[in-house]
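ESCALATION

Customer reports they have been waiting on this structure for their group meeting. Please prioritize. Original submission:
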Amino acid sequence: MVAPKAPAHMQTRRRRNNHQPKNAAHNICFLMAGAIFLVFFCVFLVTSGDGDGGIVRAGNNSGIGSNGGASGGGRMRQSFHHLVEKYELKGYGATHPRSAFILVATSELSDPITSMTNSISSILSHTDRNRILVICAVFQEGVLSKEQMENVEGIFDTMDQGTSDHWHGLTKHSHEVGATDHTHGQKIRVILPHDGTEGNGKGRLTSSKSVAASRRDAANYVHYLVEQHEAEGLKSPEEHILVTFIRPDSLLATDHWMDTVTHSLMNTDKSIQNHVPTRNAISFASSTTNTYVESETKSVNLELKPVQSHASTNDLSSSHGHDKAYPTPIVEGSVTSMALSTFLNFPVEDEYLDSHFAADLEMSFNLWLCADGIDMVSFLRAKTVLGTLQHKDKASMGVTSVVRLAHTWMGGDKLQVGRQVLALAAKDGYIDEASKLDGSLDYLPETSNNCRSFQWYLEQVNKAMKKELDDLPPIEEVDLPVLDSKGQKKLDVDPQEALAKKMKEYDEESTDESQESGEDNKKDEEKEEEEKKIPSKPLSDLNKELISTAKMVDLKYVDVTDDFAEFPHKGAMDEQDTFGYIHDEKSLHAIAPPINLSKDKMNQLCGKDDGNKKMLTKKVFVDLEAHEAANRLAEIGGPPRAKIFCLVYTIATNHDRIPAIRETWGQKCDGFMVGSDVTDRELGTVHIPHEGPEEYNNIWQKVRAMWSYIYDNYYEEYDWFHIGGDDLYVLVENMRLYLESEEIQLAANGGEYLPTKKPTKQLPLFLGRRFKEQGNENRIFNSGGSGYTMNKAALKALVVDGFPTCMPHLHTFAEDVMVAQCFRNKLEVYPYDTKDENGGERYMPFAPSHHLTYKIPKNKSSDWYANYSIDIKTGLDHCAAKSVAFHYIKGDLMKRMHALLYGHCKN
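Update from on-call: job pushed to the front of the queue and completed.
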């Protein structure tokens, strides 16, 4: 990442030498003073005699006489308290500046007071109080009830008395309520809707509905407070106050972090001053989205959604100083620290951005395009408590913010990047919705001429976003409604003229109103009939019958997490077993690791002549020609490709099976995840706890938790979801073509007509290899061996309507049988027949060679496979030419199959 030079209008906010210690003598004096203070403090510990190991607690008056005099220890204690009170008010000066903290509680929090108190407690327990200027706890309108608003200030007043662990210099202690041995200045400022501050009206806080506006209000209050401190002699002009934004579902997790932040922002290491840029902001790593993996950063894609990214090798090698700071395209969002003047001098301020992520995105663009950028420091860490604001639905933003950010920073429909962002929003129906939003483009801020272009940001900072942009066909004209300044569709004629014309037409109308109404209704019916798209071939009678009992499902996401309190919705754990982890399901698709196989080994595997090779060269193939044609069609405005999420379940002892999946078929899925009992980012495994023990006889509970996690976090981004074990091989191109086929589209649309637009309702489809349980045709299920596939409607129906009452506490290994039973008994959804037109099976429960050589015994009841199977064929005819999946495939066999299917053996 190229180190940028700040534009002229922002250079005054860079950390310069006047913010550093004056000279070497100044440093020595400071160290000597610190040493004297430590000696003084040690004497105090020895003589205090309170038996608390140096922990100062209220209510302990040992050493202080009843006549008001004091022993030597008591006098030292009093001196210490005077020092505490002095630095509480004045801090340490320019070299160790204080920070203001701003936290904004929104309606997204289920328990805003608890979330806020937890976050503020973490500030106090990890930060020297002498370096805290103020903590602004902002509660937005509608977050608190009237009763809570009356009591909330008292809660934080109690915290301000030091009742929780807090630091004074190097001393960590706490007090009991009402302690008077030393006083604490007021650090916590509760800001409620319509609240204000005194002092000639300066810094007055007004009611704000957006996170961005609330942050700005609080920062203005801090600025006013700084001015008052300087006027009262409690702050020197050389002390440049910091501001730290903490999302109120996050906790600080690093002691003495302010020294690192100050060093990183001021860049006091002269040996690297000429080589490394001084950043304007420091972003903390989060233990739920970035569990202390040094190279991981946070970025944003063309859909303006957050994604994990990685610092380049050059960025890591040039990470400056002992802090190991490296650039990140956007702030992580849990904790962000910068100079107060930096934030207040942002040239772009949009007070209508609706979420934490939208406000963070604007902050990031200001920092990179108009200042010196953002660093992450590898060991500055935060933890997310419940993941509430980091949940997929909450980590992005509404349509208004998407439109406003695209127009403000990306040129709107004037630049290619803006067109693509708006076009992607239009695909999801956002623009139509935006056109109805009154004021979506009101008071749109203008970017300063001194800021860099967004093209610079793409080329130098967010190269992944640029690659995403380059991979899309250019949009010459945006086929979107033109919006006026209030986000309304512009009319071709003046509204008053249009109204007058309509009134004239109405007055001249001579047709009877009822007759006209009848004709209009008839026209609507005829139009609706014309819009129905007839399929080229109807569904088979069997599949018509199988889908006849299912009900259409509204595809709108319904939150059933209940704050992630109970199984199966408790979510995932990170490497430290902390709940709230959200897996980056797109990382494997982006990385696409090559097959780890030597040339000699590849030749050996390719040269082997057996049943697997015969089936995969004589019958089964990957239809790459049709796949590439569908890609080209989608690129020029044809039907979009189906987005598939692939899910594998395993346990830690089988993690050695995962690399082969990642190197072959796993990377072809749009989203990919491995559910396990241990989280390992390198492998893509995710620890998803569930009810009961982690064992084979409890896979049902494991799968319930996995499907719930997928629905809770990824439902809205994908069209189809496939699950299988760690010995599964999927022919992803064939699966995608099958799911996009007219047959499957017809079935999902109800079985009579093909869809003509993006559906809002859908028939649940449950696809896989149909088996008769114990030969019972009334208990047909999809075998878990080759995995089974569900569309959005099926996943939602299963998780939302099925799981709560369908054997919620049963412990069994037969998860595939249980899923089918829930579909059958609770939802009247039955496994769809997935055979091809020749009767070949698409989903295979065994390896290719097994199906090639299998013979059906005369007595079917003597062989479980014959007993379970439904009208199977044998030999080459058993498998469909465009098969979708095989089972019992692992290690070298998986790599060999991949090489045979994709032409690596020929090459």
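Sent to customer with the following note: The CA atoms of residues 568 and 704 lie 6 Å apart.
Escalation resolved.
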